[in-house]
Amino acid sequence: MAWDPFNVTEDADLGTRLARAGYRCQVIASTTYEEAPRRFGSWICQRTRWLKGFVQTWLVHMREPSALWRELGPRGFLAFQVMVGGTVLSALVHPWFYALVGYELFGGGGFLARPVSLVGLPFWTIAWFDLITGYAAAMALALLAARRRGLGRLSWQILLMPAYWLLISAAAYRALWQFVTAPFKWEKTEHGGPAMRHSGKNGAGRGNRTPDT
Fold first, then answer.
1. DSSP secondary structure string for all residues of the chain
2. Which tens digit of pLDDT belongs to each residue from 160-213?
3. Are 6 and 56 in contact (CB under 8 A)?
């Protein structure tokens, strides 16, 4: 199974190619101990690379939409749009909703005001329902996952998720800029924190283009 050597998020490209070839993936109930970036600079570079790779993956596989539809099927095609294209799009538009709320709070044009007609009321209700339940569901899922893993002490950090999502958006805009100016630049994730150095490991070698996270 060939893969795109120019794609900086190779797992997204490989997963799509395997699906197009008729393979299916399943989740294994196991634990993956992954070393997360310890510095903000490393984190933003990692997220930039991932999102830039998603842009590359979407554009490459959408060169022939009809072939993608035929090979993935309607459900797979829709899943590709949501998971690959939607991930980037949602990160790009997310800050604009904050800007809209800020505009409203400081005397804006009444975008969020309750509509005066019955025609607009259902749309207004659905919009607010989606906003509230979307944030609540994401935070509840994170809280549940932390507690099940015995990390309840980190529960307070869930309140920082909106700020975290804004940082994801910053990485998305950085990825879009890099896609135009340096599409194949590979910002390799730093590995080898203090704990790994103490155990004699130094992570993936510097300068190698080995798949990493």
1. ----TT-SSHHHHHHHHHHHTT------S--------SSHHHHHHHHHHHHHHHHHHHHHHTSSHHHHHHHHHHHHHHHHIIIIIHHHHHHHHHHHHHHHHHHHHTT---TTSPPSSTTTHHHHHHHHHHHHHHHHHHHHHHHHHHHHTT-GGGGGGGGGHHHHHHHHHHHHHHHHHHHHH-TT---PPP---HHHHHTT---SPTT------
2. 999 999 999 999 999 999 999 999 998 888 776 655 444 444 444 333 333 444
3. yes
Q: How would you classify residue 192: left for phi > 0, otherwise alpha for psi between -120 and 50, otherwise beta?
A: left
| Separation of alpha carbons 126 and 145, rounded Å | 28
**Taking a C-beta distance cutoff of 8 angstroms, is the pair 94, 165 a contact?**
yes
Longest CA span, the chain: 68
Residue type, 125: T
Model's pTM, two decimal places? Answer: 0.81
Alpha-carbon distances, residue 106 vs 1, 23, 98, 109, 111 (angstroms): 55, 52, 12, 10, 12
* Contact status, residue 53 vs residue 8, Cβ threshold 8 Å: yes
Spatial distance between the Cα atoms of 142 and 137, rounded to a whole number of angstroms: 9
Tokens linked to 180: 């135009």
User: C-alpha distances in angstroms, 148 versus 31, 154, 208?
Assistant: 13, 12, 36
Q: CA 84 to CA 103: how far, in whole Å?
A: 30
Q: Are 48 and 171 in contact (CB under 8 A)?
A: yes
